[in-house]
Prior knowledge:
195 residues; alpha+beta; 4-stranded antiparallel sheet; 5 helices; 4 strands; binds zinc ion
Amino acid sequence: MQAWRQATLPACPLCLPGTCRLEPLAPYLRKVPAVAFVARFYCRAQHTTISLLPDFYASRVPGLLDDIEHAAEVAEAGGGTEHTAETLRPADASDAITLGAAVAWVRRRVAWVREVLAIVGSLFPDLFAGVARSVGAFRAHLETSSVLVALRGICERHLHVLPRPLGLNPRTPVARPRRRAPRQSMGPDPPAEAG
Ligand SMILES: [Zn+2]
């Protein structure tokens, strides 16, 4: 299926309606975790490329939101960061990676998830009142095993101010509402950061 061929943006997520014109760009090839084309647009006013990212993709880092969540989940289970790195390393990294690199890989993911849960908790104080800022607590509260994917829907109007891997992290955060783009999330191009 070549969904990217039909992908359009109803409105620029960064600008007030009618104040800029989005130009379609050639789709880019996203290689991790699976090869896929991602539709892109360019906002002249913000000098920013905006991508239509399927909801399960992490933003600005390679891979899936579920995989990042899994790393944080394993870390929460205890045993220490080194143990978590040893547990996760075979599934995600090449044989050549060092334990030190794997530990850093785990720490980045734990920090991203922690930051996202803290921000989401403060964006929706009533919804997450009394919920611990952990993957386990959010899973129980939202009754899902894909907390980050669920939060991307819940936080849709805030994605442009949220950090990676959930949010879209534009260079100039602006707190403006935007229209809904069903089943896809918009984000600037993914990054050079190696997973
Ligand atoms: Zn714009």
